[in-house]
User: Which sequence fits this backbone?
């Protein structure tokens, strides 16, 4: 089973962000890391070592199988240079981050709704206690 990962650092006003993409078999996942100021190589390496277990990856998206093949070093250098010129976020990464964001919104709405219902029940219980106390003449 082929696994591939890549880390792309880019400037998204006003912060520097890192897009950590990983492909495992036919699953594609992405994680967005916000750095703030422009990070140095050793800072990125230390961050990944210390915070690897805390990275919040998007839900897996099905993708085509990747084929590993030997690439001519000159061709690889040209591809790297073209990727450096094109500093945009890949469409798969955008989709995965959007999906992660939507799931976060749904979870937040559910949590918020539960808190509101609990508060309503608490207020109702307080009103009932006041009614009972008033009825008893206290």
Assistant:
């Amino acid at each position: 089973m082929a696994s591939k990962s890549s880390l792309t650092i880019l400037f998204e006003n006003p912060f520097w962000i890192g897009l950590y993409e990983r492909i495992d078999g036919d699953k594609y996942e992405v994680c967005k890391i916000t750095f703030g100021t422009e990070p140095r190589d050793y800072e990125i390496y230390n961050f990944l070592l210390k915070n690897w277990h805390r990275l919040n990856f998007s839900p897996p998206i099905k993708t085509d199988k990747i084929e590993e093949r030997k690439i001519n070093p000159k061709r690889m250098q040209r591809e790297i240079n073209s990727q450096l010129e094109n500093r945009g976020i890949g469409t798969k990464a955008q989709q995965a981050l959007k999906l992660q964001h939507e799931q976060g919104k749904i979870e937040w709405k559910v949590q918020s709704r539960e808190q509101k219902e609990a508060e309503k029940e608490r207020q109702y219980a307080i009103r009932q206690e006041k009614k009972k106390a008033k009825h008893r003449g206290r």
